[in-house]
Amino acid sequence: MRRWGSAFALGLGVTVAAIAFGSLPLGVAGVGLLFAAGLTSVWAGLVRGPVVVVPIVDPAPAIEGDRVMITIEARRASRVPVGSLVVHATLGRLGARECRLRGHGRIARAELDLGTLHRGCFPLSNVRLVLWDFLGLESLVAPTNVSPTVVVVHPRLVALDRLFSDAGRIGREGRRVLLRRSAGYDFHSVREYEQGESLRRVHWPTSARRGQLMVKELEDSPRDSVVVLLDCDPAGAAGEPPDSSFDTAVRAAGSIVWRYARAGRTATLVTTGRGRAVVPVRSGESDLRGALGALAAAEPDARHGLARSLSFDDAPVARAGELVVVTSTLEPGAVTALLGFATRRLVSVVWIDAPSWGSRPTRATPGVLRLSASGIPVAVARRGDDLAAVLGARRTEALAHG
């Protein structure tokens, strides 16, 4: 914004008027305006130069509910003093923010208080640093070099001493049914047949489809691993963050992964959204942090439903020794797939009752009832429930509550 041009024109007019009327005070004012306009023009030319902007997020990463601050430090190449510095930026879904930096030398700082944030990843973008002169006659946008910054807010997990599925599966007659986790070889992929290989390894359906012999690649895989599948189908999302059905699903998935990691079992987190994530978690803190980062970025934006995610084309799911599904949608195809899985491995389901977040009456869902009747452990989470109590219960009994 250039106001010095108006000041120059005004000063010129006042000076001419002072000469015409022979007024000394008016002449002093006119010359002062001309001097200020000229000085501001020179300042604008000298102050231009690249500015390095360094944002520092605290805490990083944050946990939902934490108060998040961003310390912004601007390092100017020019030594010419400025009247004020204002930084403008966009923080993802949080929208536009601005703050005034303190310090008139080459280095200026400011603290931007974001308040308490809900789960998510909020990239810092569209950063502009506006410099003002001391008289407020001139402002310019300095060229900036900004360190890439993303405010990451992890979901708040609950500590679980046990899981609702720990007791195994309950059969139709109330008897406990446990599946043996055997070690062995899993079907991993297919490749072209090589001369001399046993015909036992030929994968005939793929060979027929491609018109040439294809053999199965087998991979040694112990069946003690567990996959926690987070369904990101937008059809099951209700409510607004942080009190939404999907945020509850994210917390549930993360808490279950954490429980298995603390028990010393390898757990793989799989999300079905557009930014599909597959994160194996062992007992290491770094592994868990990777899963938390994937959960922070998870959005209900899957391109397909749960049934397709449960297909055998999905290698992590197909190779799992145990499968835990966190979902708020149970269409018939998904239920059929889960029942098929349950014949070969342990399966449990956390069903998020999305209608309870939309102030709609909760109805018994046929898919949930069908899974429960088949002996698959099902935990039901509704709005306002204690998540630790839901996931840690020995068995969910309130499946048909309306």
Structural features:
402 residues; alpha/beta; Immunoglobulin-like; Rossmann fold; 4 domains; disordered C terminus
What do these coordinates show?
This protein is 28% helix and 31% strand. The relative contact order is 0.11. Strand 21 (346-352), helix 9 and strand 22 form a beta-alpha-beta unit. The protein has helices spanning 4-21, 24-47, 204-210, 245-262, 285-297, 306-309, 315-318, 332-342, 366-373, 387-392; strands at residues 51-58, 62-63, 67-76, 84-91, 96-101, 107-116, 120-132, 139-142, 144-146, 150-154, 169-170, 176-177, 184-192, 214-221, 226-230, 239-240, 243-244, 267-271, 278-281, 322-327, 346-352, 378-381. Strands 2, 4, 5, 7, 8 and 10 form a six-stranded mixed sheet that branches. Strands 19-18-15-20-21-22 form a six-stranded mixed sheet, with helices on both faces.
